[in-house]
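Re: [help] complex structure
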Amino acid sequence: MERQRIFIGDNLKLENINGEACYTCACGNILGPWEANFKEGCTLKESPISSLGPGYASSDPDMENRMCFREFFCPNCGVRHATEVARIGDPYLWDVQPKLSSGAVSES
Amino acid sequence: MGYYIGLDGGGTFTDGVAMDEKGRLYFAKAPTTTENFSIGMFNVLSALAEECGTTVENLIASTERFSLGTTVGTNLLVERNGAHTGLLATAGHGDSILMMRGSGRITGLDPELYFHPQATSKPEPLVPRNLIKEINERIDYQGQVVVPVNVEEVEAAVRSLVDDQGVTAIAVSFLWSFRNPAHEEQVVEIIKRIAPEVYVSCSHQVAPRMGEYERTVATVINSYIAPKSAAYFASAAKRLHEAGLNHPLLIMQVSGGILPAKKAVENPLTSLGSGPVGGLIGSAALARSLGHDNVIATDMGGTSFEVGLIVNGEPLVTDENVIDQYRYKLLQLQTTSIACGGGSLARLSPFSKSIRVGPASAGASPGPVCYRRGGTEPTVTDADVVLGLLSAESFLGGRMPLDREGARQAIGLLGKEVGLNPEEAAAGIMKINSIKAAELIRQQTVIRGYDPRDFHVYAYGGAGPLHAFMFAQELGVKGVVIPLGNGASTLSAFGCATSNLVRYFEAEEMFNYPFQLDQLNGLIAKLEKDALDALAEMGKAENITLERFGQMRYGGQWLHNLLMRLPEGNIGPNEAEAIIQDFSTTYDTLYGSGAGQVSQGVELFSVLIRATAHLHRPDQAVQEQPVSELADTTKRGTRTIFWPDQMTFIESQIYDGRYLRFGNLVTGPAVVELPHTSIPVGLGQTLECDAFGNLVLQFKQETKGLKKVNDSSSEQKGA
Amino acid sequence: MDETANIVWDGVARGYIPPVNLRISPSLKLHTQGATDVDPITYEVIRNTFTSINLEHGQTIQKLSISPITMIVRDFQCAILTEQGDVMCLGPYLLYLGNMQGIFTKWILENRSGDPGIKEGDVFLCNDPYVGTSHQQDTGLTCPVFWNGELFCWVSNSVHYSDVGGPVPGSFCLTSQNIHEDPPCFPPIKLVEGGKIRTDVEQLFLRQSRIPQTVAMDLHAALAGLRVAQERIVKLIKTYGPDIVKGVMNRMMDAGERAIEKKLELIPDGRWSERVYTEAAVPGDRGIYVSRINIVKENGYLYIDNQGTSPQVGSINNTFAGLVGACLAPLTIMLAYDLGGICGGLYRRIKFRPVPGTITCADYPAAISTAGVFNMPMVVATATGAVSKMVACADSPLREKAIAMADVHAYGGCIFNGINQYEQFFVGMSAGMASGALPASLARDGVDTGGLFWVPGMEASNVEENELAWPVLTLYRRENAAEEAGAGRFRSGLGVEEAWILHGTDRMDMQIYMNDSFVKNQGLLGGNSGGRAFFKVKRNTNARQYLAEGKLPQSFDELNGDDAPIFFKGPPVNLEVNDIWSTNLPNFAGYGDPLDRDPTLVVQDVSQGKMTVEAAQKVYGVVFKEGGLLDIERTEACRAGRKQQRLF
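Output below.
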C-alpha cells in the first residue's frame, strides 16, 4: 500500500516532498529525510531533569545528575516534537521510522 | 368496597394494580409524565377506576392502602439533577469519593470494555472538589478517638458551603464512624444548629459498613437525592389527600417492604432502584400461593433484563450496589440487570461473520424498525415480528400497528451478510438474546450453587413473556409462570400493593470463631430492640417477625461473604458450632468439597436483623371451578410462525389471552396474545391458566399432529 | 561472536521458546477435528459462553482468595487454551500473565506428555520462570480438559501468591545474584492427579512459605476456578458436540487474527523503539541499566526484539516468558481493545527475536524473583512506548488508541512486615497505590486515578481495610496535583500520594518500596514524562504532638524532623514510632507539546482545584485575567514567545 503522508504526532509527519520522503513540521519546515532520525533536524535542549519542576526532584542528586531531560524542537516554529529522559552521553533514541510504501526497512 | 392500590412509576409507563376486598385484581397502565408525575399517576388511577367500575374519587376515597414505587431517585442521580450537595470528610480523605478506588472508570461496565481505555471514563462527580471540606477529626479501627472534632473548623466549613456555595444538602462521612458514631453525630448537631434548613445525612446511619469509599458514596447519594425526593413524595401525598385518600402514602423500598412517605424521606437511598424489587416481591407473594419455593423472577423490558431469586420462599438479599459506576453497600433484595431487551440492536460482527445482539439498544427513540419511529437497525422486537410471534396488527390492542415489512427488510439485510434468510436471521437474533438472558440467570443461580432445575421462572415485563419459552428452556427449569396473565406487565405495581412494612437493622462488628457469645447476643438484642422501637414508632406492634442473619467468610476473605441465617433465642456454644458447620457446608456446596479451610478461621463480621410488620390484605380471589373447554372468544384463528427452536414455519393457533379461564389448556405451537404482551407456546409446550389467572408454561410434552408449512424461503439459504 | 549461541531455548538453560511443531508423545491423543460449517448463530452462542466461562473462572479466584494482591489488586490471570496450548482468550486481569500460560502449557505438552503423562483430572503446577512464569510468586496452574480420552483444550491460571519462600518475607529477593538465592522454582509438577489433590505436592509447595495458610486458601481458590471452567467446557461439548465446539474455537482464533490483520493494514510499515532506564542491580549498586523494545512492522506482521538492552545482572532480570507477556500487554490494549480478551489471533501476528543474556530475556541462573515489581512493569512500559509510537503513525481511528506510558516500576506498591496490632507476624502489601492513573492518549486526556490499563480490573483497598489489617494510620491519601509531571497537549491522569504513621506497634520493616533516583517514565511524542515515583520517610517528627493537639498532619513540610536518606534500593527501612512515611504514585506520561493544549482544559483543571494558576502559566503558558477568567490574547502571546525562546 502506498501512502502519501503519515501523521506521527500532532505537528510531525512524514510526507512526499518532490518525490522524496521527508519528516516535516506542521509549520512547513523540513526536518530531514526518511533515512535519518528526525531528531537530527531538531533544535535540542538538554537540561537537568529536576529543573523541570517539583514533580521530578530527586532525593539522590548524584544519580540524577547522570541523567538529563532532552527536548527536540522544530528549529523554525519552536514546537516540541519529542522528549527523552536519557543518560548523559547516550545517543538520541531513533524511535520513529515509518515508511510511505511497503518494503524492507533498513536496519538502524 | 375498600381497595389496596399499588403504583409503579417506571421510565416509560406508570403501572397500577388495585385489589378489592374480595381479592379481585384490576390492572391499568398509562404513560409516565416526567415533567409532572401526578398527571400520569391520576391517569392510571382513572383507568383503574374504570376497570373497577367506579369513579376515581370513589376509588381513592375507599382505598385502604396506597403504595408507590418510583424511579425518582434514579432519575435525579443519572440526570445529575439532585441537590447542590457538600461533603464533610476526615482530614486527608476528602479525595476518596473522587478517586473511586481507581476502579470507578470501569465499575459496573461490561467486562469487554475493560480492554478499551479510550472507551471508559469516570462518571461526573456527585460532589465536585470545591464542595468537599476536610475536618480535623480521627477515629481508629477500634473506635478510639485519635483526634477530636475541631468544632470551629466544622462551623466554618458549613457556613462556607451554605452561605458561599449555596448547598442545600450535606453529607458527613468520617473514617471508622460505623465503629464510633460520636463524631458524625456531633457534626450533624452543629449543622442542624447553624443551618437548620439544610438536609444532612451521615454515613453511620445511611450505610454503617466498613469501607470509607462505599460508605461515602451511599451518604452522598442519599443527601443528593433527598431534598427533591422529599418534595416529590410530599407533593404526591398532598395530591392524593386532596383527592380524598384517608391513609398515609407508602413508598416502596429496596428492602422489599414499604415505609410511610414521612419515614422514607429520612433515608431516600432505600427507595433508590425499588422498581425491580416490586416485581420480586410480587413474585414472592404469588409463589407462596402457588407453593413454589424456588423462583427465578425475570423482568424483560425494552432495554434491560432484570433477574432476582427467591430461594425457599425468600427473595435473596445483597449489599453490593452500583449506580452510574458508583458502588455502595446497602442491604436490599438482590436484582441483577444486563442490557438485553426488546430494543437490543442486532449487528454484524465483520471478522467472524456472525451476528451480535446488544448491548447497544435502540431505546425508546428511534426504537425498533417496526415501530416506524425512524429506527433503521434491526432489534430483538423486529425479530419477534418477523418470526410472527408478535402480531403486527394487534400490538397494544391494535392501537399501534407494526411495520412487519420494514422489520423483515432490515433483518434481511443483516441476514444476507451471514448467508441467512430473514426468518433464519430473526431466529438467530432471538436465540442469541435468549442465550444472554439464560447466561445471566446461570450466573445468578449455578455460580452461587443453585440448580436451575429446582426453580420456576416467572417471566414478566413487556418482553419477558415473549421470550420465556426460549430462555427458560435453555435452563431446564421446572416451568414458567406468566404471573397474573395480562397483569405480568404490571407486576411491580402488584408487588407494591402486597408489601409489608420492612426495616433492616445492621451492625458491622468482627467476631472471630470461637465467638465472644455475650457480645454477640448483646449486639443481636440491641439491634432487635432498635427494630421493634422503629416499628412501634410507625404504629406497628403486632404481627411482627424478627429474623437474624450474619455475614460470614473465612478469615481475610474481604471480597466474599455468605449471608447465613442465625438461630433464634440465646446463642450458646452449641448453636455457634452449628453456625460454623452450616457455613462450611454451604461454602463447600458452592465451591467444591474442601474448598474452604476451617483452619484459616471463620469470621462473622456483620449482624443483620430484618423486622417485618405483616399488614392485612385480602386473599387473592380464585376461580372455583376449572373449565377445560376454551371459550370461542379466545380463538383468533391461526398464523404461520417461524419457530426459532425448530427453525421452520409451522401453522400455529392464536388465542386471545384475556378470555382464558382456570383450567384452560393451550397446546403449542401457539401464541396467546394479551393487550400488553404475547406468550409464545412452543412445540411440545403447554400453557395452562390457573385459579389465580396465572399462565403456566410447561415443557417436555410429546409433539404430535403438527402441520408443517412448506418452507418456501429456505431456498434462499446459502445464497 | 555470541559465546552463548549454542545454548538452547529449552526452559532449563534459557527461557523456553515453544517450537511451531510441538514434540508431543504419541501416547497422548489430541482432539483436533473442528467443524468448518458452524452456523453463525451457534458460533455466537458458543463464543459468548467461552468468554463467560473464563470470566467465571476469574471471579471464582477473586472471591475465594484472601490475599489483597489477588482479590483486590487483580494480580492474576486466567485463560482458555487450545489443545496445542495456544491461548485463545484471557480475562480482564493482569495482562502480562496471559500468554505465559500458553508457554508453560506447551512446555508441559513437550516434556510431560510421555512421562509422567497428561491425563484426565490432572492439574500441573509451575513457578519456574525459565519454563514460563514472570517470577516465582506468580505460580501457574494448568488443567487439561479431556473428551472421550482425547485432550480437547486447557484451562489455566496464574496467581500471585504472597510468599513462596526464599530469604525475604514476600519472596522479592533484592540481593539475589542468581536464582539459587531466590525462592525455589518448581518446574511443572502434578498437583492434582485423577481429580484428587496430591497432598504431598501441595505440602511441598506450601512448606516453602512463611504464611502457608494464606497461600493454601489462595491455591484452593485457584483450583476452584479451574474446576468451574473445566466443568463448564465439558458441558459445552456435551451440548454441541466436540467438533462444533472445536470449530468455534478455530474460528475465534481466525476471526481474531483477521481483526488484527485489518488493524495492521492501518499501520504503515516501519520501525519503532523505546528506551527506559533503570538502576541498582542489587542494593548499593549505583549502576544504570537499559531496557529497549524495538518493533518492526512488515508485510502484516510485527517483529519484536529487545536489542540494546543491558546484559543480565544482579536481581533485575526476567525471562523470555516475561518479555513476551509484557510486550503483549500494550499490544492487547492498543490493537485488540475491541476483542473482549479473545486475543489468540493477535499472538499469531507477532514474532519475537529476543536477545538472550539480557535483563529482559535472561539465561539461567539469573535471579528473577523481583521481576513482579521491577522488571515486568518496566518492560510493559518500554513496550508501551514503542507500540504507542507505532500506533500513532496509523490511520484513524486506530491512531487515537495510542496511549502513553504508565508506571515503570510497580505502581508505587510497598511490601512490609512486622508484628501487627494483634501481636501476630504479618506481611503486608499495600494496594493503596493501585488507584493508578490512565496516561494521556492521542486524542484525549488520561483519567485521574483511573486505574492501570495493563491490570484492567485492579482497584485500591479502602484505608479502613488497611488499618484493620496492619498497624498503621493513614494521614492522607490524595490525588497529585496537575503540574509538569505528565503534562502535554493531552495530559496524564493524576496519580496519588498516601502518608502513614504507625498505630498499634512501635516498629515495622519496609522491605520493598519505590524511590526512583530519577524519573524513568518517557513522554509520548513531545509530551512531558511522568513524575518520579517516591517513597520518603521523615524521622523523629512531632506528628504525635500534632495529634495530641487535635491536628492531623497534612504535609511533610509542616512537621519538624529529619528527612531520612532513602536509596532506590536499600536494606529494609525500619519505621519507628515518631516516623511518618509516604508513597507516591506519580502522574504518568503526557502526549504532545503542553503549549498546544486547549487552554479551556487548563482553565477547567484550575477551577476544579487540580492545578494552580502559577502552574497553568509555567507549564501551559495559560494566562488568567482577574477573577480567574482565561485571557486568550495574552495566552497566545505567551505561548508564541515561549516557542521562540526555545530556539535560543
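Chain C touches chain A through 67 residues (CB under 8 Å).
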